[in-house]
Amino acid sequence: MKNSEPESIIKKKQTLGFQAEVKQLLQLMIHSLYSNKEIFLRELISNASDALDKLRFELINNKFISTDNSDLEIIITFDKDNRTINISDNGIGMNRNDIITNLGTIAKSGTQEFFSKLSGDQKKDASLIGQFGVGFYSAFIVAKKIIVKSRHVNSPITEGVLWESEGSGNFTIETINKTNRGTDITLYLRSKEEEYLSSWKLKSIIRKYSDHISFPIKMYKETWDEEKKETVISNNEFEVINQASALWARGKSEITDEQYIEFYKHISHDFEKPLIYTHNHVEGRNEYIQLLYIPSRAPYDLWDRNKRNGIKLYVKRVFIMDDAEQLLPTYLRFVKGVIDSNNLPLNVSREILQESRDVKVIREGSTKRILNILEDLSTSNDKEKIIKYANFWKEFGQVIKEGIGEDNNNKERISKLLRFASTNNDSDIQNVSLMDYIKRMKEGQNKIYYITGENYKSVKNSPHLEIFQKKSIEVLLLTDRVDEWMLSFIPKFENKELVSIAKGNLDLGNLENESDKKQQKETETKFQNLIEEMKKILSEKAKDVRVTYRLTDSPACLVVDENEPSGNMIRMLKAAGQETPNSKPILEINPNHALIQRIQLNNDNIHNWSHILFDQALLAENGVLNDPMNFVKRLNEMLLIK
Ligand code: ADP
Ligand code: MG
């Protein structure tokens, strides 16, 4: 939002409606987060802290001149008689336009997706909301009315704003005089929420969720009144409730697990615990602190191209920017955290970051840390770690695969992190590493075999697997969209070639013996004529027709040449509206199949049979027929032959 307002700004009280999504979110939140309603305070403090961070940054960069030199702080008070809680900050504040946008709409990327995923099932939706980030609106869980008074650091005293809402359909907004900079939020509590009108309760919530906030959070001091024999709350003296120092700058041993977790929730807007984190003070020529978290769950907008990265950049404890995408490679975009550099200048911009050598060092260091913790999880025998890695792979495996193509320096390390579904498993679970595969290789086997396809069922039942099943050779089953692209970057792993069993000639290498090969030659001669004829008939559809030994149960299958994209790849490209190479597949027929043998003996209907075999093979790999009616017609004709 721009901070300069036009002269003609409307000053009278206005009633505006919430964006439809806000109404929906408010409804949902009140119902599904009720069991954890105290988080409203965490959210409001988190916003106040962000506002202070932004102010400090702007002051350093001289964009705003503030005559108010008061210390940056958050003050929390309550009023038992009026049943209100007040949260004030002297941060950057909001002007009229800011407030209308920020507290009347949801401006997050992926909002659409979020709403489309809501199921109506309260439990499921509650965790989804948590994932989406609850934010300001969560205050309506405990408040029947909220008044926000705010003044942007750049607005004159006469241009404060008062926002008021009961959280139903709309809010009002009017211009007021506001002497102090920043934002004051007053919650008018619902009935039955009086437990929050207590110093003890508020303090314990602050300590539980907001201890890590680096600005002081203050409340009026309580003292023991000897005469009255009770605690009285001072009305002029404050005490600081939290530690008020940047959590990441503290020593590891001074931080509890709970504090790490609450800090994560603050920076990530995630409701759930992180899966794992890593915290390091890096010394030397390039000094920085990194506190990085891997979430337990993929965000709903993981695949949103506009999604911002989750790293906050600080320089010497001063907040510089959110979403510092230069600090980690794209394939680690799910990582959240803070990087605090001692070397970068305070006025660093995104453009400078792009060029900076210090940033490059930080990015490499941070990538290494993340790969380290993943390596540790993935190679451990510890039960908890095994579960964590399986969880990680389920949520982020597809993104990590992008790293194979994106991060050439770490390709080796990343390829060890990969997990696949395999014929060695009974289910579609992806838990087989390339290392596991190699350990199970048959004697004489020197290749890693895989098949790609659209979904587990289609690859699991693919005719291409038949010979491998017969010989008990393991095949990796790849069904993620990125797989084929990724595989083009790893032709070999540990000196073993990775080969698609649906491409090129079947090459079982040393797994075949000489007498097999001799017999195959003889069969090929026997089928020569049939093959030639089929080739002519199918010249528009198939590049070639040949005899194969990869099938045991099916009469035919399709393959492509080694260096050509697979049928699956072509279908994906088509679905994405991309141009597709004009290549034709090869039809392979199984000389041992009764159907093929019959056609070989009696080729009266060879025209129909050729087309039926081709179309069948296409259907078997989940392909789409060009002319399904003709297929049905031909098949029926064949069925009617006596
Ligand atoms: P989020 O913090 O995830 O952006 P919220 O719903 O918590 O979402 O807040 C919405 C926006 O309202 C914030 O991004 C910020 O721009 C603005 N805002 C909220 N509280 C304050 C505050 N105390 N001072 C300044 N701006 C605020
Ligand atoms: Mg917030």
TrEMBL record:
Organism superkingdom: Bacteria
Domain Histidine kinase/HSP90-like ATPase: 36-193
Binding site for ATP: 43, 47, 89, 94, 102, 108-110, 131-136, 183, 350
Primary localization class, coarse: cytoplasm
Family annotation (InterPro entries): HATPase_C_sf, HATPase_dom, Heat_shock_protein_90_CS, HSP90_C, Hsp90_fam, Hsp90_N, Ribosomal_Su5_D2-typ_SF
UniProt cross-references to NCBIfam families, sorted A to Z: PRK05218.1
Family: Belongs to the heat shock protein 90 family.
Name assigned to this protein: Chaperone protein HtpG
Species whose genome carries this gene: Candidatus Profftella armatura
Phylogenetic lineage: Bacteria, Pseudomonadati, Pseudomonadota, Betaproteobacteria, Candidatus Profftella
Designated gene of the protein: htpG
